[in-house]
Amino acid sequence: MRKAITGHKAVAEAMRQIEPDVVAVYPITPQSEIAEYYAEYVHDGLVRTELIPVESEHSALSACVGAAAAGGRVMTATASQGLALMVEVLYIAAGLRLPIVMALANRSLSAPINIHCDHSDAYLARDSGAVQIFAESAQEAYDYTLMAQRLAEDMRVRLPVIVNLDGFTLTHSVQVVDVLSDEVARNFVGEFKPIYPLLDVERPVTWGPFAMPDYYFELKRAQQAAIEAVPAVFLEIQREFSRICGRDYHGFFEAYRLDDADYVMVVLGSTAGTAKVAVDELRAQGMKVGLLKPWLWRPFPIREVAEALSRAKAVAVLDRAISFGTMGALYEDIATALYPSPRRPVLVNYVYGLGGRDTAVLDLVKVFQELPTIKATEPVLRYIGLRE
Amino acid sequence: MPSIRVLAEREEKRVRFTGGHTLCAGCAEPMVVRTVLNAIEDPVVVASPTGCLEVASSRFPGTAWNVPWIHVAFENAAAVISGVEAAYKALKKKGLIDKRIRFVVFAGDGGTYDIGFQALSGALERGHDFLYVCLNNEAYMNTGVQRSSATPKCAAATTAPVGEVIPGKPQERKDLTEIVVAHGIPYAAQAAVANLIDLANKVERAMKYEGPKFINVLTTCPLGWRTPRDSAIQQAKLAVETRYWPLYEVIEGRYKINYKPKERVPIEEWLKTQGRFRHLFRDPRGKELIAQIQAEVDRRWELLLKKEQCFGVGD
Q1: Is A29 domain-assigned?
Q2: Residues from chain B contacting residue A63 (CB–CB below 8 Å)
Q3: Domains and their CATH numbers in chain B
Q4: A27 φ, ψ to 5°?
Q5: Which among A21, A206, A215 is the nearest to B69, CB-wise?
Q6: Do residues B168 and B158 make contact, with C-beta atoms less than 8 angstroms apart?
Q7: Is residue A315 part of a domain?
Q8: A208 and B119 in contact by Cβ < 8 A?
Q9: Residue contact B59–A65, C-beta within 8 A
Q10: Omega of the bond prior to B170 within 30 degrees of 0, cis?
């Protein structure tokens, strides 16, 4: 059913349909409304979830870890400083192979404190071992929340999954979202099968042991194998979900007018929507431009991205965060992907939109128009919409 | 109330915490862990934060735990057990579990008084149904005897050393038990490893209540206190006799002091047996400092007596 709802509501609806056993969540702008909607569902008796209104995000994720290890299906949501507080436990959740799904309402990190969107929070969790998916729209946030649950719980994966949605741009704006019927959504997500649950008291298991140099390395290597299993499972889940929802999800990224593009933009999240308009405008003027919008950011689909970009003349990689002292994280992913390629396009790294700075269609048109004038890849950051 | 025989029988029937852990010789923690777990008849799930007990009991691929056990990090044992308990409730509602399972945290004073304090307070306020046992050995023993807010005044710790100017820890210890009582939970108590039957009785009484239960157990650390390895029981006993560590419980807001020493044993008797206070008996300022420690012990004891008088159980 098509509904005009905010991104918050879209995520909360997916959570209601998933109906986890435990939700532990702490308020933070721009995430709070997800927690509020879910508290309403619990207090109105629409779900049987145990809601833990924790005293911090650190405890939110800690409670999620406890609940998931106990054998429950578990979800949470956060943003910005909240994720920063969670990061210690996020690494542990991944190390313990716990399928916790988390909505991340992307927001900048302090200082200075700022409540608006950028991707600093997601980047902070880049190496945590959690799978990270980026949504362009409220629809994608809804769809990928359902898919994330399947992905996290797949026996080949069993990892925490973060669904990123841009703070305010997606969380607070009303969009038309096609929400599946509860029955269809629930059938898709299926039953949760815990592994070695703490609550199986007949078969006691020690969770979270301490490993010395004689075992630690092998255990971390095994964790890498788990995240390496994600891409194949991701494609399977997309195929199945596309069949039931009637929308077309295939691949690790959306390739928008990419096939014959000379000049390509790579961008995460809602700005991809703006980029599509810029692409259409320039295509109308005869410029062969295209867009690559990663859905799956971690693990990064290195081979597929290299294949998709190897025909381009120049690629603008847009990072909505500064990785201080080096190039942007997404840029580094793209550079890593293209390095082994015999045909390397010129790569340019743009930083944009920090702390909610608006990025307009015209800004992105200018980036595309600038690309043909840049003759070689240079390890220098360029900035969009910055006063210098 | 569980007798020694009952506790011993349970220990023989189902060893919940096995030997083969790597806790130090003379460490009092295993006695507390075994006594608490044997005092509970139902199946249990245990959580521990990072600390001596955790590293000594869970070295991969071995384990000393014969009950389900989880460690996540240092500051979050109370949050972790909140999640375990919430999942239990949810699965019970769905009819996926029918057993009665009890939830227990064993945490050190660092993981309770300091870094884990916020998570503990949150879990107490939310009213999760669990027992939190603080294995209080009065410093960060696992990392090498650094001071915590449970460390007594003047004790030497590696981050509060006995220097030329400052003789050990300058501050008084935090009265965590009373802070926990202020949360209005159904059961809070202090116990000591010297009085294991008292501890077992407290656990059994505590487990009759639904909601958060807290027991702060003085647990000797021969390494950190610099006492002989065979002195754990003696040390804890002296702490009780000197009124430094009163055995008491607060049941639904009602105070009961479980043991009132007949004679007033000066705190000096306890201090002088421990290397961490040795400087007090060598330094010319020692007398004055011991008097200050005694005054604080007296103040807290008097206050406790008054609380019992005003809000006693009345038996």
Answers
A1: yes
A2: 79-80, 82-83, 86
A3: 4-310 (3.40.50.970)
A4: -70, 140
A5: A206
A6: no
A7: yes
A8: no
A9: no
A10: no
Flag whether A248 is in a domain. no
Under 8 Å between Cβ of B118 and A85? no
Angle between helical axes of A80-95 and A57-70 (0-180°, round to 10): 30
Same domain, A162 and A304: no
pLDDT digits (tens, 9 = 90+) for B170-215: 999 999 999 999 999 999 999 999 999 999 999 999 999 999 999 9
Is the same domain home to A283 and A183?
no
Spatial distance between the Cα atoms of B71 and B142, rounded to a whole number of angstroms: 15
Let me know whether A239 and A263 are in one domain: no
Residue that terminates a domain, selected from A243, A274, A299: A243
CATH number at residue A367: 3.40.50.920
Section A55-74 average pLDDT: 98
User: Measured between alpha carbons, how far is B225 from B223 in angstroms, rounded to an integer?
Assistant: 6
**Inter-chain contact B82–A54, Cβ cutoff 8 Å?**
yes
**Residues of chain A with C-beta less than 8 angstroms from the C-beta of B99:** 201
* Neighbouring residues of A178: CB distance < 8 A, sequence distance ≥ 6: A1, A2, A3, A139, A245, A246, A247
- Asked if A239 and A261 sit in the same domain, the reply is no
Give the Cα separation of A27 and A77 in Å (integer): 9
Q: What is the ipTM of this complex?
A: 0.97
Angle at A88 between CA A86 and CA A91, to 5 degrees: 105
**Which of A21, A59, A209 lies at the smallest CB-CB distance from B79?**
A59
Contacts for A314 with CB less than 8 Å, ≥ 6 apart: A262, A263, A264, A345, A346, A347, A348, A371, A372, A374
> What is the number of domains present in chain A?
2
Cβ-based neighbours of A257, under 8 Å, separated by 6 or more: A279, A280, A283, A289, A290, A291
Chain A residue closest to B49 (CA)? A208
Chain A residue closest in CA terms to B58: A209
Q: What is the residue whose two structure tokens read 């005003």? A: B310
Contact B86 A211 (CB under 8 A): no
Three-state SS for B6?
helix
Name the residue range of residue A330's domain: 255-383
| Residue A126 lies inside a defined structural domain of this protein | yes
What span, in angstroms and rounded, lies between the C-alpha atoms of B119 and B75?
Answer: 7
Query: Is residue B315 very low, low, confident or very high in pLDDT (cuts 50, 70, 90)?
Result: low
Residues A264 and A239 in one domain: no
